[in-house]
Amino acid sequence: MEQLLRGILGDNVSVYIVLAAIPLAWILPFALFAVWLERKVSAHMQDRLGPMRTGGWHGWSQTIADIVKLMQKEDIVPTAADKILFVLAPFVVFIGTYAAFAVIPFSSEYVGSNIDLGLFYFVAVSSVVVVGILMAGWSSNNKWSMFGAMRSAAQIVSYEIPGVLALLSVVMIVGTLNLQEVNELQRGWFWNWMIFQKFPFVFIAFMIYFVASLAEVNRAPFDIPEAESELVAGYHTEYSGMKFALLFLAEYANMFAVSAVGATLFFGGWNSPFGDFLSGPLWGVIWFISKGMVFIFVQMWLRWTLPRLRVDQLMYVGWKVLTPFAFANIVAVGLWMIL
Amino acid sequence: MPETKETLETRPPVTSTGKTLRTEEMVLNMGPQHPSTHGVLRLELVVDGEIIVDVTPHIGYLHRCFEKHSEAMTNYQQVIPYADRMDYLASMSMDLGYAVAVEKLLGIKVPERVEYIRVIMVEFQRIASHLIALGTYGLDVGAFTPFLFCFRDRERILDLFEMTCGARLLYNYIWVGGLSHDLPLTFIDKAKEFCEYFKPKIKELNDLLSYNEIFIKRTAHIGVLPAEVAINYGCSGPMLRGSGVNRDLRRNDPYSIYPDFEFDVAVGKGEMGTVGDCWDRYFVRVREMVQSVRILEQALERIPKEGDVQSAVPKRIRPPIGDVYARTESPRGELGFYIISDGSVSPYRVKVRSPAFVNLSVIPEISKGCMIADMVAIVGSVDIVLGEVDR
What we know:
Chain A is an all-alpha fold. Chain A has 13 helices and no strands. Chain A has helices spanning about 1-10, 15-45, 60-70, 85-100, 120-125, 130-140, 145-175, 180-185, 200-215, 230, 240-265, 280-305, 310-339.
């Protein structure tokens, strides 16, 4: 990909700009699609139809209409808000999310930055989101927003630990943090995927990672930072118009980012499940995105099925259940590898 | 427990430079514009972090002078549309409460078919009202889907009401001495159909919400209302029965034709936690829906085929001087109407004993020391309707 772009654009900085913008070309349509899908999934789970009219076929352009509406809205900054932080916060949240896409390998030929510490970078950078959320909650000068932000900070910090420990047990097996190399190691048929290795320990690691990732992206049953029945809308209560849209976009982009890492580490990333059948750089993109979308669907499925945990129960699950299991899992994987 | 002077919780936090930080409680205003206060209830919370230290409910945002309005009417029947608007989720039960009170004052005996239709309507209304209570309770604890499922089933009950009297929410159906319309021809079959349809739906709701592990975690042991406290506060309905007190006015102080029906009084047993917790109050409503279906099945089977539903409606209502108190079991508890008559065409005074108002008063008692999320669960489990609280 990089060579191709160099060939077209010449050897200058524009190559990197284009490389960096490619995930954006995926995130925007993805978020539009995912919001529509969420509506449809929830509607069909609840004996409804969801949007049916906008655009004709099953309301496909409902989210586009929503975006147009949000763009037209007045951009309100509350009088009592801390203006600089308030305006900055959605961007920080989005930057944190978008920066994580830099190391996500969409295909054998494309990864924003093929660095050796890819996974480490992903974990580190996705935590920047919490800074933005805290900024948003604090600057809104609203007690409910503040609660949302504090909960979010506590939640993301405590769930990062089991999540990272779960990822670590995979890293121990593959011996690399480079996500592209992890993909290469899972080439071939689907039984080469990490999820089927060292059964059941990698599977346990995946479950822990998946639960922790739900908490990290504030999805149900861990959506307490934005629990609409308790905190109205949590940290983005006071946001409107495009700032709200940006926070929303970041949330959906984040959903895909954690799903993508899950798919890469455990389900072969861009590898075809059937060996060389339907494999190649372009098929890779399709496989990768479909795997990601499966996780997105599971996230939606859970959201519309489960009630929400309470904040202390959430901490309990994180610290007293997931973290010990993740540690035990690492020890088990380590022992397996030595023996 | 021996009192410890300084624990981790009581010691004020110290900064790295050695200064002690001042911590204080925060007043948090929950409502009247809040998604989980079921209308326009305002709760003034004093919170220490997420822990609630004190709660003061503020009511009156939906006050519509029901009692004063009733005095200004030119006819006793004219009060009924206002009674409808008190508990707008259980209008039939409100109508019945008022009708029973005025009939007691006048000494009217209504025909048997009217009694049967009233029981059928009120039990349908109980199911509809409980469905909203359970659905919105799911919403309060974060489960969205049960809410829509409950509304789907309630919709069918509203369809039945609509085919009977044309209205879906505020019926003005049960009149003093009779009913506004007779049942339409196909009603009995449709109602039986609904009973058959509804029974598996209760199981669906249980599988989806009642026995959900997270739901139990959120509601068991939360907001425990001991039987003694419930009695002292005058709680009634599912709130009282959830605390394990076997008291249901349909059984304990029968009115209409309830003694003719077989049903069990649902009480909280504390299966998932303590007797009288939120889960018990929730589940009492589920059990009551099952019992309501039982009553409906008997009533639909035995209802007299013929009869004029307006034969006992008095042309002019001019009760003798005196007063009356009549109570009925509304979906939220003991609904009492105290009516004083001065012998004129309109009541001299109407006082309503609103079950939701009395049940609401217990909130400060049971919610101290819980968290904000529990507060939402407790308010939801009390199942208030502000129209009835404020009147």
